[in-house]
Amino acid sequence: MSGQKFDNKVIQWVDDRLPIFSILQHSAVEYPTPRNLNYWWNFGSLAGLVLVIMILSGLFLAMNYAANSALAFTSVEHIMRDVNYGWLLRYLHANGASMFFIVVYIHIFRGLYYGSYKAPREVLWWLGLVIYLLMMATAFMGYVLPWGQMSFWGATVITNLFSAFPVVGDYIVTLLWGGFSVDNPTLNRFFALHFLLPFLIFAVVFLHVVALHTVKSNNPLGIDVKGPQDTIPFHPYYTIKDLFGIGVFMMVFLGFVFFAPNFFGEPDNYIPANPMVTPAHIVPEWYYLPFYAILRSVPDKLMGVLAMFGAIIVLFFLPWIDSSKVRSAKFRPLYKQVFWIFLANTFVLGYIGGQPPDDTTVMIGRIATAVYFGFFPLLWLLGKIEKPRPLPLSISAPVLKAKTAAQPMEKA
Amino acid sequence: MRKFLLSTVAAAIVAVATPALAHEGPKLEKQDWSWIGVFGQYDKAQLKRGFQVYREVCSNCHSMRLMAYRNLSYIGLTEDEIKDAAGEKQVQDGPNDQGEMFMRPARPSDHFVSPFPNEQAARVANNGALPPDLSLMAKARVGGPDYIYGILTGYGDAPAGHTVPDGMYYNKTFPGGNIAMPPPVDDDRVSYTDGTKATKEQIAKDIVAFLNYTAEPELDVRHSMGLKVLGFLFVLTAMFYALKRRIWADLH
Lengths: 412, 252
Fold this sequence. Notes:
The complex is a heterodimer. Chain A is mainly α. In chain A, 66% of the residues lie in helices and 1% in strands. A two-stranded antiparallel ribbon of chain A has the order 1-2. In chain A, helix 6 (122-144) packs across helix 7 (149-160), helix 11 crosses helix 15 (359-385) and helix 14 (333-353) packs antiparallel against helix 15 (359-385). The two termini of chain A are 41 Å apart. The longest helix of chain B has 31 residues, at 219-249. Chain B is globular. At the A-B interface, helix 4, helix 5, helix 10 and helix 14 of A face helix 1 and helix 8 of B.
């Protein structure tokens, strides 16, 4: 970062005292990036964009929201009806939460496919998982704030899970509730935490980026960068590619906001919370459904809760569970198939999590849960028995070769 | 580009496949509402008729606490008409200089006055059933407007073997089939001033339109703004794509 020279004297003066311009130049302009990143690598910057949109829209919502169980529901409707463009703020925020999870899930599965969690990117992977856990907590508490029927009963069901822990369970639940049932104190603390956690997420995202810039991006071939011929500067190549991705993403996101704003929502949440009336089925938001299915697949409450948390915790150990030295699934014929089965299985779990439990759905849920957890030992075994395809010598070699071969068609 | 298309498709699958959660109940017939679709807008004349139905029929039992009389200017009521609609209801105000609460006619700035002072009063007047607040009804039920239309037109004779308890009515759309609300709409239940024939179906459609408006008063603005925003984004994204192709051209 030293020795950077700028033409502009003011910039140079500032930079000699606080090297923000050097840092920018170093990590957002010249930053050497593998030249072969595909569009799946857009989802990291998209997640960052959504986080900013969520914090901004949330800030203005908080200015008009009342975190009190007698006022919350009406204050949200006040935002929808009386605050200028309040409906836009709220629909941006509500749909933004779903978009955040879609983007992050794609980002995570991209990491799984291309082996981005393997050495030297273990800490990068951990930080990503921490962000994901914080997002789950933040989204859960945010969903409670409108104080509709699903807010109230979702909060009741999810907080009650902690009561499964022996000895301390009931104390944890009382602490979460701030009393002996989900009530005004619960709403108050959830609002405070819902305001706080996004800034923690922001801090961990910062660490995630620092770690990324230390170990550098993985790439679709999963092989290390061998020299300058393998990389291109981040700007303008990836800035423009990210901008294009942002344009497409915003069209999808705003398509929901303007034309189907309640698509991801539950109609029951437009009924004010009523502790005396339980909705026919209580379903969490869609992004928790795979884990909800795992929870319900285990007959024992404590074991179910442990399985649910374990389903995420196990991901932290992925860098050591996966015994293969080859990163990208491109060169792992068996892992590639296992990956798609694992992905499809996650959809099955998600679907089952949204169904009312009966004999068939519980049975399917149990099989899918077994497949979910079976994935990890299988991953260890695969590394031992799989014969990977030969790896290319460098990133630039196959890129250039493929380009010459595909020249006539690739123009499209 | 192929990879990118794949990613969009994947995102779309995630979006469509997961939240379509379990909701049983009878199949709802989809009606051709004027506000459906990206170009959909409310028919103001219909909203006005719908308000007439609410005022003359529904409001005898159902509250609509989130609506204010002033909001009615959007559906085309004049200032005087709004004052009239508000003025026929009494609200409690005060305390006055003597420290006493008093009743006064409602003003345009007041929210719709509820027919019953509290839940218990509503229940005792309705055979134990609580007529729900209608402000958000069109968003608070699966199927929304089609569900409400299904309820309003779903009355009839119970099928053989289905017993309807005393004081209840058979309704094929209502979960369980037994509803406490007497059939609210019928031919010529209201007489429209704009010459529209007040058939049962017409009345049902008009009130559903009004209820959809009270649940989503921003819909007209939302749709027209959405078209402009997406049009702008489409052009911007196309330019980004052209620029991306041009910047990356020298790499290949």
